[in-house]
């Protein structure tokens, strides 16, 4: 018997109607997008290529700058250290202080030495004034000695005139006496008259002899022989007697000795008149007081005392300077690094205590290959990409100079190519790039940071020495001079 299926089973086994499948979307071609990307890359490559034709770049560059080693100028014990590493300081800020007490003692000693030297100068000037007064007195003594000789010569001439007068009187008396004697022999004259004429003659002769002895006395006083030799006249006197007479020479020597003590070194070969005339020439108005006053400061003892004051003052200045050097200050604006000193340390002159690196006096040293140097010139603009700032900021700069030697030749151990093992290697030359419009407070650059400089060789160089390879000659003061 055949089983008849139920309605539920018939429904399950009956064929289900077929539902049509949804239509698939049409696939778009990716070729246009790939072509567009390729065109962009080609355009970018073209831009970079054409840009590279007008630029030179290197990845061998870094930030460099001045560093000042802080060292004491005097030896001593450190009492305070006022800064630490990474502290920012300004020029003149005190970094380290040394114990000032030993230096204060030296200052007090130097002050006392200056006071003693000033006292010595006062004493020397007083002595000089005394010697000047003595020299002034001796000057008058010399002048008086010359005048005395001149007076004696005048007296000699007066005595000779009187002698001549007495000679005339004697001759007249002799004539009268002889006449009366002749008359008396003829009984024409009385004996009394003869006696009177004889007496007058004898008196005239005595007066003549007295006058003659007076002349002799004056001549002897003048250092002359009483009777001139070779029958010369009694009035004959050497023309320079007032310059060679013993009293005059004695006064001259005494004056020269006193003058030498106050700094007037006159030669004794000069005559007394020449010595006095040279003395008066020291002042246009021939003012003796002004001359003496001007000579006081030139007296050797005064000069020596003044020198001692200056020496003592220099020692005082040196002691004060050493005292000021107890404060070790920053010589530049910058940041403290490598501190190696602590309170209580004993330091010596020149010992490195720390370093101060400048934040403003910095530049970029770029080591370009020698094959890149053909178009590089001073003044060309440079774009500086610093790794520490990434793409956020590009610094501006300009080439300021070229180092006179490649890195290998300036190394501690330069290559020795003379051994015959030479292998040509492309050399690199350090090129200095100065920063333009650099603000250390906003975007500081630290020494040693890596930099990628891009030099625009096709742009016009600007600034000092633009377009040159070598900077001009400079003198010791830093001013440029023309070659």
Q: What string, H for helix and E for strand, traces the elements in order?
A: HHEEEEEHHHHHHHEEEEEEEEEE
**Most strands sheet:** 9 strands, antiparallel
Give the overall pLDDT as a whole number. 83
Roughly what percent helix? 40-55%
Percentage of β-strand residues: 15-25%
Number of strands: 15
Return Rg in Å. 58 Å
Please, how many helices?
9
Q: How would you sum up the global shape?
A: elongated
Q: Based on helices, strands and strand pairing, what is the structural class?
A: alpha+beta
- The low-pLDDT segments are 1-15
- Span between N and C termini? 134 Å
Give structural notes.
Helix 3 (101-185) packs antiparallel against helix 4 (191-221) and helix 3 runs antiparallel to helix 6. A hairpin with a 5-residue loop joins strand 14 (473-474) and strand 15. By secondary structure, the chain is of the alpha+beta class. The chain is built from nine helices and 15 strands. Residues 1-15 have low confidence and may be disordered. The protein is elongated, with a radius of gyration of 58 Å. The strands form three sheets. Strands 1, 2, 4, 7, 9, 10, 11, 12 and 13 form a nine-stranded antiparallel beta sheet that branches. Strands 6-5-3-8 form a four-stranded antiparallel beta sheet, with no helix packed on it. The longest helix is centred in the first third of the chain and has 85 residues, at 101-185.
């Amino acid at each position: 018997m055949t089983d008849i299926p139920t309605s539920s089973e018939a429904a399950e086994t009956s064929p289900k109607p077929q539902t049509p499948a949804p239509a698939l979307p049409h696939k778009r071609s990716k070729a246009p997008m790939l072509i567009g990307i390729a065109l962009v890359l080609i355009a970018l490559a073209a831009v970079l290529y054409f840009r590279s034709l007008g630029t030179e770049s290197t990845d061998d560059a870094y930030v460099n700058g001045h560093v000042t080693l802080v060292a004491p100028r005097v030896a001593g014990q450190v009492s305070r250290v006022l800064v630490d590493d990474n502290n920012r300081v300004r020029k003149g800020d005190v970094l380290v202080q040394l114990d000032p007490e030993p230096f204060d003692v030296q200052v007090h000693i130097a002050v006392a030495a200056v006071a003693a030297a000033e006292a010595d100068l006062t004493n020397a000037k007083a002595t000089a004034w005394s010697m000047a007064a003595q020299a002034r007195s001796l000057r008058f003594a010399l002048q008086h000695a010359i005048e005395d000789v001149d007076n004696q010569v005048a007296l000699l001439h007066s005595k000779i005139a009187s002698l001549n007068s007495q000679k005339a009187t004697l001759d007249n008396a002799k004539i009268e006496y002889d006449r009366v004697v002749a008359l008396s022999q003829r009984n024409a004259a009385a004996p009394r008259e003869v006696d009177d004429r004889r007496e007058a003659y004898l008196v005239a002769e005595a007066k003549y002899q007295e006058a003659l002895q007076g002349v002799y006395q004056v001549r002897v006083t003048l250092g002359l022989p009483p009777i001139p030799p070779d029958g010369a006249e009694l009035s004959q006197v050497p023309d320079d007697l007032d310059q060679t007479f013993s009293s005059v020479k004695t006064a001259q020597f005494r004056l020269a000795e006193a003058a030498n003590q106050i700094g007037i070194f006159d030669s004794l070969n000069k005559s007394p008149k020449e010595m006095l005339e040279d003395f008066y020439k020291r002042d246009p108005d021939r003012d003796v007081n002004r001359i003496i006053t001007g000579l006081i400061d030139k007296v050797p003892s005064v000069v020596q005392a003044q020198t001692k004051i200056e020496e003592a003052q220099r020692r005082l200045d040196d002691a004060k300077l050493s005292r000021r050097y107890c404060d070790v200050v920053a010589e530049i604006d910058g940041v403290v690094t490598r501190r190696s000193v602590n309170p209580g340390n004993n330091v010596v002159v020149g010992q490195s205590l720390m370093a101060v690196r400048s934040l403003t006096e910095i530049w970029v040293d770029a080591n370009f290959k020698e094959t890149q140097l053909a178009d590089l010139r001073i003044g060309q603009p440079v774009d500086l990409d610093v790794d520490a700032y990434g793409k956020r900021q590009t610094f501006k700069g300009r080439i300021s100079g070229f180092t006179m030697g490649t890195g290998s030749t300036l190394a501690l151990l330069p290559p020795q190519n003379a051994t015959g093992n030479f292998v040509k290697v492309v050399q690199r030359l350090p090129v200095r790039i100065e920063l333009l419009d650099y603000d250390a407070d906003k975007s500081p650059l630290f020494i040693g940071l890596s930099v990628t400089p891009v030099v625009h060789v096709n742009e016009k160089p600007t600034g000092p020495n633009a377009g040159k390879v070598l900077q001009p000659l400079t003198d010791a003061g830093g001013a440029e001079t023309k070659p």
